[in-house]
Amino acid sequence: MTTNAAPPRVLLVDDEVGILESLRILLKGEGFHPTVALGGRAGLDRLDDGEPDVVLTDIRMPDVTGVQVLAAVRDRYPTCPVILMTAQATLQSAMQAVNEGAFYYIQKPFRNDELLAILRRAVEHRRLRVENTVLKQEIRKRDRTTTVAAIGKSRAWQDALRMAEMVAPTDSTVLITGESGTGKEVISRYIHDLSGRHDDPFMSINCGALPESLLESELFGHVKGSFTGAVKDKTGLFAAASGGTFFLDEIGETTAATQVKLLRVLQQREVIPVGATEAVPINARVVAATNRDLEEEIKRGSFRGDLYYRLNVIALHLPPLRQRADDIPLLAEHFLSRVAAQRGDAPKVLSESARDAMQVYAWPGNVRELENALERAVILSPGRTIDVTALPGRVIERRAEALVADRTPSTPTLEAIERAYIAWVLQNESGSKSRTAEVLGIDPSTLYRKLARYGEDAA
To answer: What is the DSSP letter of 50?
Structure first.
């Protein structure tokens, strides 16, 4: 027993006062810090005072058994070893104790030196488990720097990462917003990996990819015979994600009926499978994401306000890639290394002209578009250097005139301003003319006429 460390805390649980007092005197004299609990119920109450280093408990107690104390300790403090003791030992009870996760099983009466040796081994076992847990966390922290989530030195991205790291240890619901391709699922996995749920499942679903009936079956599960094709019971993703994290992508695409059921899940922490009458409790942290402005959708009546406020406990906004120009070379290096590893080749490098073009381009498809463009460039580049000509045409062709420049521009015509602004909005909306018309506040037919008049430069 080292003298510079705090005495190991041992919780003693027994329903006999004499045994408790004898053990307390013995352990205190041997450098332990014993705490006594008269009976199993008192032992459970003592667990609320904090985690002990070891629990030593009798098995046969009238109120709460030692096996129940063991289960409670394992649930609250997984690294804390539990030693069970009994005067009526059998092979069956010993096997049960081990199967339940006991560190050791000792029969009364026992020799003091035998008990002390077991306790010291238990203390060392816990120390090693704690150190191993800390080491795994440190390794995970180092490993996370190699993921695309942690790549980026821009202020906007660093702010988003800092927020993700702050909320990760909690169980709070997180709503991630941002344009398509900004990395919402990547950040949700980042939160999961840094949380206490990292060893349990990470499940995800794109709410906009499935029709309503199929989406509800995937989310909540169904019972056999609840609809045509339901030939057996199905566990929903909420239940499958128990203990872990469930990522609901494109939550803004859900229908009103599905939103009502999602609200119940968040309020009651339970789901009712399709065709079932009984609720199933769930224990999954919910992270949702959308590229829509849900507050605007609430005003339009297409999204429930009460669901929005349940989802928006922690708001996390991801910046578009055009606001992260300094991160583009770092992301490019990461993607090029990943493609090279997949192909078994040495990583290719960008020429200066290619790098410049990539940093000027607005990347309406954000990180996803960047990754696809680099994969294409690798294939089209026979040598080790990727030249600007290997990039997609949209990256290197003439962009729309900038509305703001470093130098004072000559006075533009009203048509030139309108033309440039339409082109800018069209680019930000990934070429979607319907969304562009909506942003501009004009009828789509009006937009088509203007594009036809301005020609290919604007379109």
So the answer is: -
| Rounded-to-integer distance, Cα 66 and Cα 53, Å | 17
Give the Cβ contact number of residue 250 at 10 Å.
18
Give me 318's structure tokens: 């991801």
Residue 54: Cβ-neighbour burial (10 angstroms; 0-12, 13-18, 19+): buried
Question: What pairing do the DSSP bridges indicate for beta strands 234-235 and 280-281?
Answer: unpaired
Amino acid at 155: R
Token pair in block for residue 156:
């906007």
For 287-346, what is each residue's pLDDT tens digit? 999 999 999 999 999 999 999 999 999 999 999 998 888 899 999 998 998 888 888 888
CA–CA distance, 383 with 324 (Å, rounded to integer): 29
CA dihedral 376, 381, 382, 384 (to 10 degrees): -110
* Nearest-angstrom CA–CA distance, 215 and 271: 14
Q: 311 with 346: CB under 8 angstroms?
A: no
Confidence bin at 459 (pLDDT 50/70/90)? very low
Residue 261 is which amino acid? K
Residue 54: name the closest of 71, 39, 32 by CA.
32
Give which of 36, 31, 4 is closest to 19, Cα–Cα: 36
Per-residue CA distances from 345 to 211, 323, 339, 378 (Å)? 42, 32, 8, 11
pTM of the complete model: 0.57
Determine the Cα–Cα distance for residues 148 and 129; give it in Å rounded to an integer. 30
Judged on CB neighbours under 10 Å (0-12, 13-18, 19+), 368 is middle
Three-class DSSP category at 333: helix
Using one digit for the tens of pLDDT, what is the confidence trace for 335-387? 998 888 888 888 899 998 888 888 888 899 999 999 999 999 999 998 899 99
Position of tokens 């010291």? 120
Question: What SS3 class is residue 258?
Answer: helix
Q: Read off the amino acid at residue 408.
A: T
